[in-house]
Structure formats: C-alpha cells, structure tokens
Amino acid sequence: MSDQKPEAVRSTVSLPVICTIFFFSGFPALIYQLVWQRSLFAIYGINVESVTVVVTAFMLGLGLGSLAGGAISRLRRIPLLTVFGVVELGIGAYGYFSLEIFDAVGKATLGAGVWVTGLLTFGLVLVPTLLMGATLPILVSHLVRHTGNVGRAVGLLYFVNTLGSAAACFAVALFIMRAFGMQGAVGLAALLNMLVAGGAFLAGARHKTPPHEESAEVSTGAFSRRRFLLAAVLVGLTGFISLSYEIVWFRVHSFTTGGHAVAFAAVLGSFLLGIALGSLFARRFCTSDVTGRGLRALAGFALAAMLASFLVAPVSSWLATFLPYPFMLPLVTLAAGLLGATFPLICHYGVAPDARAGAGMSYLYLANIIGSASGSLVTGFVLMDLLDLRWTSVLLSLLGLLLAGGLVFLADTPGSARIRHLAAAAVSGVLVIALSGTLFGNLWHRLQFHEKSGEEQPFAYVLENRHGVITVTEDRRIFGGGIYDGVFSHDLVRDRNMIVRPFAVAAFTETPREVLMIGLSSGSWAQVVVNLPGVERLTVIEINPGYIELIGCEPSVKSLLANPKVVVEIDDGRRWLNRNPDRKFDLVVMNTTFHWRGHATNLLSVEFLQLLRGHLTPGGMAIYNTTDSDRVQRTACEVYPHVVRIINNVLVSDAPLVPRHERLRRALLSMRIDGEPVLDLAREQDRKALEKTLGMLDSLVEPSPPWWSMETRSSILARTEGLELITDDNMGTEWRLQHP
After folding, report:
1. Would you say the CATH fold of 499-719 matches that of 223-454?
2. pTM for this one?
3. How far apart are CA 74 and CA 225, in angstroms?
4. Residue 464 DSSP one-character state
5. Are 235 and 165 in contact (CB under 8 A)?
6. Gap between the Cα atoms of 98 and 32, Å rounded
7. 342-350 and 225-256 helices cross at what angle (nearest 10)?
8. Could you report the per-residue pLDDT of 491-540, keeping only the tens digit for each?
C-alpha cells in the first residue's frame, strides 16, 4: 500500500472541511497579533526592548499552548473537532474585549520596568495565545488518525493555517487597518472565530471518529527517543535561523519604505506565504524512507534555504534601483518557502504516527518557538548591536550551512553523494564570506535612494545598531531608517532645514525655563532650543542612542553633549511621559517624523495630545511638526483652544498665543551658539534674514505663501473642515499604500 492511499480513502469527507476551518482559524490569529502588538507598543513604547518583549511573549504563549493542545490530543475519547470549536470560541471572546483589557492594565502599570513589563505583556497575551497554540496539535492528532503520516498531516495543516495567516497580513496591509481601525479589526477577527467554531461543531457532529481508532498506516522506521530529541534540536535551530532572517529582512524592507506601517505586514505576509508553500511542497518527501529520502531532502532544503536567505538583502537592494517596492517581496517568499519546508520534514523524522502524534508534534512546535524566540532575542538584541547587516547575514548563513552539512551524516546516503553535499556546503560557505563585501557594498545607499542612487552623494556615515540604521550624506543631510531626518545646521542665514521654526518660538515666550524635546536627530534643533533666552534645562528623550554618537562627531552640534543644561535620556517619548506624570514643562518641542510612518500616530493622536497637555505648566506650549498633514493640523486645533501654524509646524497651548516682533528681535540678536552670534547686523545677509524672520509674523494678518507663513486656528479649522481626527484607534494616515 502506498503512502497516499489511506489519505485518499479515509479523509475524503473531512479533509476539505478541516482545511477550510484551519485556514480561517489562521486569519483572525494574525489580525490579533498585529493589532495587539500595535496596542501594546502604544502603552509600553516602541523601543527595541519593548518590541522584543511583546513579540517574545506572544511566541512563548503559542509554544505553551501547543503543549496543552498536545496533552488534549492524547485523550482519544474526546471529540477533537468539538474541542477545537471551544478553543476558537475562547479566542474570539477574549479578542473582542482585548483592547479594553490592555488599556486598563496599561494605565495601572505605566511605571513598570522592563522585566515587569515583560511579565505583564506575557500575562495579557497568555490566555489567547495558549488557545491559539493548542489548535495545531489537536488537528494534527485528528488527521494522523486518518492518514497515518505525520509529515503530511503537519505539512498540510501548517500550509492551510499559515496561508490563512499570510492572507490576513495582506488584508490588514491593504484594507482592514485603514478601513476598520484597531477596535474594528479585532471585532472582525472575533466574528471569524465564532464562524470557525460553528464550522468545527458542525463538522464534528457530522463526521465522528471512533474513539479508539488508531492510525490507518504507520510508516516504517524506528521512532526512538534519540531521534525525537535530535528532531527537537533541529527544529529549534531552524526556528532560530528563520526568525533571525525575518528580522534582517524586515530591517531591509522598513528601510527602503522609509518605515512605512505597511512594510511589517507585507514582510510578515510574504514570510508566512513562503512558510505555507514550503510546508505544502515538503509533503511529497514525507515517505516511509524517513532516514533516507526524507533526511536528504531536509539537508537539501537547508542548503538552498541558507543561500537564498543570504541573498535576499543584497538582491533586494539592486531591485530597488529599478523596480517598485512590491517586487522585492517575492524574494522573502522564496527564501521563507525553503525554510518552511524543513518543519514538516523534521516532524516526520522525529514523531511516530500513532495516538501520541499530536503530543509529540506539540513538543517539537515548542522547540521551534523557543528557537524562534531565541533568534529574536539574540539577533535583535546582540548581533545587530555588534555586527552590521552584512556580517549578521554571513553568520546566520554559515550556521545554516553547518546544519545542512551535519544532516548529511544522519541520512542514509551513499559515500559519493555525501561528499558532494559536504563539498557544496563548504564551497557555499567560502563564497558567502568572499562575496559578501561586494554584495552588501552600498546596500543602504541603494535601498534609500532607489532609482536615484547613482545621482546622490555617497554616505559620510552609516551607523547600524539594534535600534535602526542612520545614514549621513557628505552634504550633512541625516536620514533615520531610510527617511530624511534633518540637516546638521543651525544657521538661520543660510537656512537649509527650516531652522527658523524653533527660533520663531521666541516670539511667543520669553521664559521657557523647563523644556522637553522628544527626538534628538541631528541635534540642530536642540542646539537652538537650549540657547533660547531663559532656558535653564533641556530634557531630551531619544529612542536611538546612535544619534548621540553621530552628534559627538559633528562640530556644529558637538558642544550640545557637554552643555550642563542638557540631559539626554534613551527612551520612547510617549512611554517617558506616561512614566513621569509629575514632570511639567514650559515648552515641549518635537520635530516629529512624517505622519505616514509606522507608529507616527503615537505622537500625533488625540490621546497623545491630551497626555501632553498634562505635562505643560500654566501658559506652557508645545511645538511639533505636522509634516504638511491637514489631518494632523486639524487634530491639534480640536484638542487645543489656541493654535498657530508656523510653516509646517503647529504651536499649541491652553493659553493665548500672541507673537511679538520686538520679543523675537531681541531674542535673535542676543542669542549666541558656541560663542558665535546667531545674527550679526554688521552683515547685510544677516539683516535680510532678520527682516525675513520678523516678516513671517505678519502673515498671521496678511497670508504669505504656505511654505513661509503662520496661520491662525480659525483659518486652519476652516481649511480642514470635514477631515477625520487622528486617534490611537484609526492610526491616522499610517496605512495608506502610497506616501502622501
């Protein structure tokens, strides 16, 4: 009897139903993951520590849930499809109320440290992820009872469930988040959970499996404890490499899109699609020849996966110079497909196709989760802080090639074939090291400038750390995460970066003693603000310490770091405000990034502006960049009673904002930076700069061109009538497919 016959005979009725149910089970699971991550980041911050904690907690919950599902699957008198339906009901019930739960817990624990935050996050996602993780071993056990083939059961179910998750990622990126917001998205996911549960109940009632029915066919081969433990090591190692490469690929794609919110969902969807297709393709190698054809296929997939994964970043950078961004995504799918093929093959090698198959698979799934979580921690925290992208990719590739070579020794392979495979792995390793310099040379330049890469200036600095990638061109333009972030310049006369905006604040106040700045970037704004008349202390919150390193190398702003009035703290701006409720400021300054970037809403929403209000002294004000977004400007006007637009920034306050020419003139003529006057009236060009800056105040009465003007709150409200306000839930303009 062939390996395929039992499946064809015994699963004809239930197999399509099971696949349909499990496909739609994977869909809401990924909606929850994307929304919950977003919600938790808003509470606990989007710095790398918080991001890693949230992702790791989610994954560990899935792993523990797999163990629970494996234990349940061994109870042969329990109708597994009915249990599956109950699990889906539980996920949907929690999911529907999840954002309210997160918000309540977040407000009660704002001052928690990193470890406490990790435990809280783990607790918040534990119940739903336990239930989600339990579903795969339950259905694997059910299907193995019909097919007698672990690898094919795992490959099929992993395919349909992961395909559903991939579809959810693309749906979120293209439509769901933009149309429904976060609460609407979890509501949709909860509805899908209920429909899946109903389908499972109906399928269980119509197709009952005899409680003591064993597998239809048991593949030949000795399934020993030693083989199972080896499989656990293999699946953990492949999980480590897979998640590590996903981090690498996301960094590449986030950089080339300038940090667009859609990038994460697009990369994750492409990754999951590859995993799904690889799992399906691997089923054909899950035969009775476990230690022969099965292990040889596993070794071959591992070798191909490592080479393809290594090439994703450099090939993507070349494609970015002449093709639109979406054409980079199939590279992720291809590499992930080769990686995804390994999981069913390892399960087929290590798990016996009997009543304990679901439980055995659950342990391997947990090992895969532990490996994946370790990859996230080690690569995200350590490797990307110590190595650049090139050497991180080289290290991961060599680790995978060692794995591929080691698998040859486990397989029943003729000596000559074994030598050829080992030689291929060794040669591949040498080529990876030798060619990496050429392949990764100018990678960030190509990803940042795309088709204009050949026309743009080369980089003077490229700084990579676990927080991101910062680049600086030879003409002193600075880019964070692939998007323009300012210029190293505080020159008001030759104003390259609209530095007039922080200078203009002096027209509205004479005594901003306590000042808070969220975001340091080039340090140019900070250099201006700390030298405004009356400033006694400037507290700067910066999420990426790499900017401090760059500022230390730049003469125009280097003195900032030695200024006794300046205090720099590394943290997420919103989280810092939440954790320091008693700190009050006369002035808050934020040169906010582009409103369409991922998580930009965290510093632009109604909820954030209300939080900011609580940190202003009576009569205090805040100025922040709207990056020309009418919705951002209207939101400011709806929250604060007094607003003035200064070019593309808004100055907001609960007290009247009255600009005075003489106050601004006095400030500009008295200010000195590094001992040099900001303006010297002995020079004609300085006199013209003063006249132009003072003239900007007149535009409140007589409008000037939008790029060099001020505007009143009433005018902004009239101009932006009908626009929707930006909230944490609707996420502003982040999920638009194109940059505005």
Report:
1. no
2. 0.89
3. 18
4. E
5. no
6. 9
7. 170
8. 999 999 999 999 999 999 988 999 999 999 999 999 999 999 999 999 99
Residue 260 has what DSSP assignment?
B
Query: Which residue type is seen at 619?
Result: G
Q: Strand, helix or coil at 50? A: helix
The pLDDT tens digits of the residues spanning 329-375 come to: 999 999 999 998 888 888 877 777 666 766 777 788 889 889 988 99
- DSSP 3-state of 472: strand
Phi-psi region of 721 (alpha: psi -120 to 50; beta: other; left: phi over 0): beta
Question: Does domain 1-217 sit in CATH 3.40.50.150?
Answer: no
Contact 351, 360 (CB under 8 A): yes
How far apart are alpha carbons 471 and 481 in whole angstroms?
Answer: 8
The per-residue pLDDT for 111 is 64
Nearest Cα neighbor of 237 from 422, 11, 451, 401 is 401
In the block, residue with structure tokens 């799934």: 365
User: How large is the average pLDDT for residues 696-718?
Assistant: 83
Domain spanning 223-454: CATH 1.20.1250.20:
yes
Residue keyed to tokens 């340091």 = 520
Fill in the DSSP letter of residue 383.
Answer: I
380 touches 427 (CB < 8 A): no
Identify which of 172-176, 221-225, 697-701 has the greatest average pLDDT: 172-176
Question: What pLDDT, on a 0 to 100 scale, did the predictor assign at position 146?
Answer: 61
Q: Which two tokens stand for residue 493?
A: 């006369």
H or E element in which residue 393 lies: helix 389-410
Quote the pLDDT of residue 710.
93
Residue matched to tokens 């794609």? 253
Locate the domains of the chain by residue range.
1-217, 223-454, 499-719
Fold annotation for 499-719: Rossmann fold (3.40.50)
Calculate the CA 496 to chain-centre distance: 32
Phi-psi region of 567 (alpha: psi -120 to 50; beta: other; left: phi over 0): beta
Q: How many residues does the chain have?
A: 740
- pLDDT score for 688: 94
Tokens of 435: 């060619």
Task: Give residue 220's identity as a one-letter amino acid code.
Answer: T
CB 39 within 8 A of CB 190: no
| One-character DSSP codes across 652-682 | EESS-----HHHHHHHHHH-EETTEES--TT
